[in-house]
């Protein structure tokens, strides 16, 4: 990575904020934030390194791309790899395979309302252990099923670039239905060919380096690219709270849900299962959220109209009765 690709750091950073402040300032307005200090009590933070993981699960097979590799084999591969886009260990069943790993971290207080939990074991994949050498990572994508996410770095550091839902990153070409995304073959290729262009954009991306002990909140619908700056170990989880429940339900009922929905074999019926489970566990919640959304939309429409008659040309405007 060139030094100039790492200079910009314009994300909001917070430490010790209340849940209420997180919801009002970041989750409801759908804005990213980097959170410090909310992993301090994790047993994983001082323990998880190569030696510890090899001791606990060196012979366990984890998902690496389309194949399964023993962790010991993966670390050998990571030491030798010279390709531009190294394979990434990204496993959604790590806690079932190695229960002690699931017990050595806890969900930060800001993300504990996870409504997909009403589905129990039928919920889509939602948590992953992520391990990779320098240069590994994920090219631009939007997280699955319109969920929001948090990503906690336990070892190493990651460069993040995020664009809001209505700004498609340069060099990225999603299909009209959103089922496929075409982008440069490697992350480095994107930086070499497109990163400089973002410097002149009016709506620049949000960027940061997330280090060990830090957590980034990725709001639903945001495009993001992540690259490891050194060998890194992280945990990430996708979740649904009341703030994005309606977005998720709308996503799950799209006509091409069988192509868009991920993390579950029953893609077509997930919407009905989830909606019915929410209504059983939290009666009237969906109706209340719909009513609140409609009131907010009506208020925004009023404000938009008032802006149109009190804008910079108001000096020439006259009321006519």
From TrEMBL:
Requisite cofactors: Fe(2+)
Chief location: nucleus
UniProt keyword annotations, A-Z: Iron, Metal-binding, Nucleus, Oxidoreductase
Compartmental location: Nucleus
JmjC domain: residues covered: 96-256
Stored Pfam families: Cupin_8 (PF13621)
GO cellular component: nucleus
Gene Ontology MF annotations: cis-regulatory region sequence-specific DNA binding; metal ion binding; oxidoreductase activity
UniProt family annotation: Belongs to the JARID1 histone demethylase family.
Name the record gives this protein: JmjC domain-containing protein
